[in-house]
Design goal:
Number of strands: 4
Strand order of the largest sheet: 2-1-3-4
Structural class: mainly beta
Strand content: 35-45%
Number of helices: 2
Order of helices and strands: EEHEEH
């Protein structure tokens, strides 16, 4: 399961890449997320690997029934 609640991503102080994204993907459900280059579609799935010194997240990201903003990408993939 994937849950995003009011997720926003900023690069630097004022460069907002994503704003107020809310979505849920249930177990067994398959979703294709696409967008123009630079639109933030890949950033949604990489919330735990983006450099925190260059970016800032607001909101909540939960997968597999645990908050995983603190997990490494390898931990995320192994769950």
């Amino acid at each position: 399961m994937l849950t995003l609640e009011n997720l926003s991503l900023f690069y630097g102080q004022d460069n907002k890449v994503l704003e107020d994204i809310t979505m849920q993907v249930s177990d067994g459900e398959c979703v294709l997320l696409t967008g123009k280059s630079g639109s933030g579609d890949s950033d949604i799935m990489m919330t735990d690997t983006i450099n925190p010194l260059k970016s800032k997240f607001k909101g909540f990201h939960k997968t597999f029934k645990q908050d995983d903003l603190g997990l490494s990408l390898s931990s995320f993939l192994l769950n």
